[in-house]
Amino acid sequence: MDIRCTPFGTTHDGRPVERYTLTDGAFSAAVLTLGGVLQSLIVPDRNGVPTDVVLGFDTAADYQAQDCYIGALLGRCANRIAEGRVTLGGRQYQLACNDSGVNHLHGGTAGFDRRIWRASVLSDGLLLRYDSPAGEENYPGRLRASVAYRLSGGTLSIAYTAESDADTLCNLSNHSYFNLGGHASGEVGAQTVCVHAERFTPLGGTGAPTGEIAPVAGTALDLRQPAPLGAGWDSACPQIARAGGYDHNYIIDGTGLRPFAEAYCPATGIALSVRSDMPGMQLYSGNYLRADLPVGKGGVRYGRRHGFCLETQFWPNAPALPHFPQPVLRAGGEYRRLTQFCFSSHC
Question: Most buried residue, 48, 241, 294, 335, by CB count within 10 Å?
Fold first, then answer.
């Protein structure tokens, strides 16, 4: 595998941003030190045509201007925490309610998606490090996070590790928007998704899970068989209507590295399978992508539902719901998680 580093401009306050491109045969992945963003992901379609299957931007300024977490690493705690309230060790912490003023979302007003990560080249990939000081975004403990991107045989692996000097929350994920027709191909409604989950966590009125665990059977969230995203995202199903499409956490039974989901684009023949050792996965159908975002790569204007996310994670709102698996990293302990995105093409 070949890894090359090129400049990618500077942040608003003058810090340099670098772009590392990992190449393995016909596949390549570009990762930024700004937010650990997956800026491009090139895979061959059924005819061997190189296709960039993630949304993104051409400048650091555009990444800083957008608010949809496009391509970014998420932390310290991905997804929503109702009212931003967390209790650890008998002490309560109030986190920023940066999601419509009612939930803490993806680490706060300046989460890991806004930070500059330190990069080092490995023999088989790229290692990013970020040292989050105690009290950053009001999280307790100094958290040292590392994320390794590796690309081999059509599989992009993202390995997350972290340690802390005090009990804290840790739930790291990646927020890439996939479009298997190519990032410039528009709405993803014809692309099929299959999720290996019999249960999900229903949303309350503010978009955070209520604590209920419900079966997908008999609802538009039942994707145990492949179905086009567009067949369900405007369903009258109350959960779909509440989120404006898919934006739900699926419970993936089992432990260890296991199949989570598959997606497929009939137009290009590109197929994606996801494996992880996390407890769940958020399927998000890009309901809040907007035409007023910065112009995307190559001058493309992205709009609503032009990409979908498959965010492996702990279940959202877990700190408020003790019966959910808890994303608590104990002092002196180690957080270690792995997610793989595996690509192929079909005739």
Answer: 335
Over residues 36-52, the pLDDT tens digits come to 999 999 999 999 999 99
Task: Please pick, among 104, 106, 175, 306, the residue that the annotation labels catalytic.
Answer: 175
Q: pLDDT tens, 219-243?
A: 999 999 999 999 999 999 999 999 9
- Residue 317 marked in a binding site: no
Class of residue 244 by CB neighbours under 10 A (exposed 0-12, middle 13-18, buried 19+): middle
CATH of the domain at 10: 2.70.98.10
Residue 100 among known ligand-binding residues: no
Residue with tokens 């959960």: 239
Q: Is 247 annotated as a binding residue?
A: yes
Say whether pLDDT at 347 is over 80: no
Q: 204 — phi, psi (to 5°)?
A: -90, -170
Q: Is the peptide bond before 76 cis (omega within 30 degrees of 0)?
A: yes
pTM, full prediction: 0.98
What domain range is 26 assigned to?
2-345
CA 284 to CA 79: how far, in whole Å? 11
71 DSSP 8-state letter: T
Q: How far apart are CA 144 and CA 147, in angstroms?
A: 10
Phi, psi (deg, nearest 5) at residue 343: -110, 145
Q: Tell me the two tokens of residue 309.
A: 């996310």
What is the arrangement of strands in the sheet containing 155-164, beginning at the earlier edge strand?
118-121, 126-132, 143-152, 155-164, 335-345, 270-276, 258-264, 192-195, 227-228
Length of the chain counted residue by residue? 347
DSSP 8-class letter at 271: E
Question: Which of 137, 163, 187, 311 is labelled catalytic?
Answer: 311
Alpha-carbon distance of 219 to 99, in angstroms, equals 27
The DSSP result for 92-138, as a single string, is: EEE---TBTTTEEETTSTT-GGGSBPEEEE-SSSEEEEEEE-TTGGG
Counted domains in the chain? 1
Tell whether 103 is in a known binding site: no
175 given a catalytic annotation: yes
**Residue 177, annotated as binding a ligand:** yes
Known binder of ligand: residue 80?
yes
